[in-house]
Amino acid sequence: MTTQAKAVALISGGLDSMLAAKLMLDQGIHVEGINFYTGFCVEGHTHAIRRKDRDKPKRNNALWVAEKLGIKLHIIDVIEEYKDIVINPRHGYGANLNPCLDCKGFMVGKAREWMEENHFDFIVTGEVIGQRPMSQRRSTMPVVARESGAHDRLLRPLCAQLLPPTYPEEQGWVDRNKLLDLSGRNRKPQMALARQYGLDDYAQPAGGCCFLTNEHYSAKLRDLWRSRGEKRYELDDIMLLKIGRHLRPRPHFKVIIGREEGENRYLEGYRRQYTHLKPLSHSGPLALIDGVPDEDDLLLAARLVARYSQGRDAEQVRVEITNQSGQSRALEVKPFPDRDIPQAWYV
Amino acid sequence: MERFVLDARRLLCPLPVIRTQNRIRTLEAGDILEVVCTDPGASHDIPAWCRIHGHEIVETVVEEEIRIVIRVGG
Ligand code: SF4
C-alpha cells in the first residue's frame, strides 16, 4: 500500500500560490500551507487602518486561501531572523529595498526545515519563470532551490514543465503531464484557471507581497537607517513606517503625524513608548516623536502638529506634550506656515 | 481538561493568530483557551484559523477588548 505523499505549500494569499496548491490537491497530494510573517507583509488589516480603506475586506488573505482550498495553514513568525535578510542581502536589493531573491531562498529554506520536522515529502511554491524581474527568472530558479537546501524537493507546479523533473515527479507522486508551463508576466492563464476552479475572489496586491517593494516605504526605511547611522530596526519601527506623515526637520528626530482618525487611533497604541503631542485648543492629529528632541525641537514639533490641526490659521494653538513617563505639559505655539516647511523634511 | 488564558493585547494581526496557534500546539484536545486581544482583525482571523484546524469557537465577545474562547479539537 502506498501512503499519500505530503507537500507543504508556501501560501502568500495571492493567486499563484493558491493555484499551485490547488494543482497538488487535484493530484491527490496531502497539502498543508505555510505562511511567513516578516513584519513587512501587506495584508488586509494594515490597510484597513485608514478610513478610506475601511470597506476593503479585513481578512487575512493567506487564511482565506487556506479555507477556500480546505487545507491547514501554519503561520510562522520570522520577524527576528528576517532582519538579516533585509539588512544584508547577499544578492542585493530590487528596485527598492526588496531583497526578493534572498527572501525566496530564506522562505523556501524555512519551509524545508518545517518539511523535515513534520515528515513531509516536498515543497510547493507558486513561482512562475519570468514573472518577477528579480526573483523569478530562469537563472534564479536553481539559486533558490540550492540556497534553501530544498534542491529537487522543490516543485513549482505552474512552470514545472519548463524545469528539470523534481523528486516528487520522479517518484511518481506527481504526474508531470498535469503540471503547467507558464512563463512571463502575462497573468491571463492564471486568471482563467482561477475562474475555472471557481476561486475568483482572490486578493490582488498591486506591487508585490510586501511593503519593501514600495518606493515611499523604502525611502522611509532608508531615512531611519541613515538617522541611526546603522542598518537596524525593531518591529515597532517598521510598523510605524506604514502609516502617518513622517517629517524629519532635524537629523536626530522625526515627527510622525496621523493623517486621519484611523491612523490617530493606531498611533495611540504607541503612546507609552514615544513622546507624543496632541492639540488641545483645536481638534487635530496625534503625533509621535522618534529620536531624542531637545526643548527647541519640541517647540518645532508642536508647531508642525498645530499646522496639521483645525487651528492651522489661528494665531496660537495649545498643544499638549507628554513624555514617555506620562508627564504632560502644554505649550502655546504659532502654527508652522505651510510655505515654510521645506520639502526635504517630508520623508 | 484545563482552562488557559492567552494575553495577546496590543499585538497586531497576524501576531495574535500566531500566538494562538503556538499556544494550542502545547494543549490537549478538550482544553479551553481564552484569548484576549485588542486588534479588531483578530476577531476574524482567529476564528478562521480555528475553522481550518478543527478547533471550536465557544464564544466571541467584542467589547473594549476582544475575548475569544476556543475549545481545542482532537
Ligand atoms: S516582495 Fe517582499 S515578500 Fe515578496 S519576495 Fe520580495 S522581499 Fe520577499
How large is the radius of gyration of chain B?
11 Å
H and E string of chain B? EHEHEE
CATH architecture of chain B: 2-Layer Sandwich
Q: Helicity range of the residues of chain A?
A: 25-40%
Mean pLDDT of chain A: 92
Structure in words:
The complex is a heterodimer of chains A (347) and B (74). Chain A is of the alpha/beta class and 347 residues long. Chain A has 2 domains: 6-211, HUPs (Rossmann fold), CATH 3.40.50; 243-345, no CATH class. Chain A is built from 12 helices and 11 strands. Chain A has helices at residues 15-26, 44-47, 61-69, 79-87, 100-117, 141-147, 167-170, 188-197, 215-228, 235-240, 261-268, 295-307; strands at residues 6-10, 30-37, 73-77, 122-124, 154-155, 245-250, 253-257, 275-279, 287-291, 317-322, 328-333. In chain A, helix 5 crosses helix 6. Chain A is elongated. Chain A starts with 5 loop residues before the first strand and ends in a 14-residue tail after the last strand. Chain B has 74 residues and is of the alpha+beta class. Chain B has one domain (3-71): TusA-like domain (Translation Initiation Factor IF3). In chain B, 30% of the residues lie in helices and 34% in strands. Chain B has a 4-stranded mixed beta sheet, with helices on one face. Classes of the chains: A alpha/beta (347), B alpha+beta (74). Chain A binds chain B through residues 37, 41, 43-46, 48, 58-60, 63-64, 66-67, 71-77, 239, 269, and chain B through 10, 12-15, 17-18, 21, 38-41, 44-45, 48-49, 51-53. The complex binds iron/sulfur cluster. Iron/sulfur cluster (SF4) binds next to helix 5 of chain A.
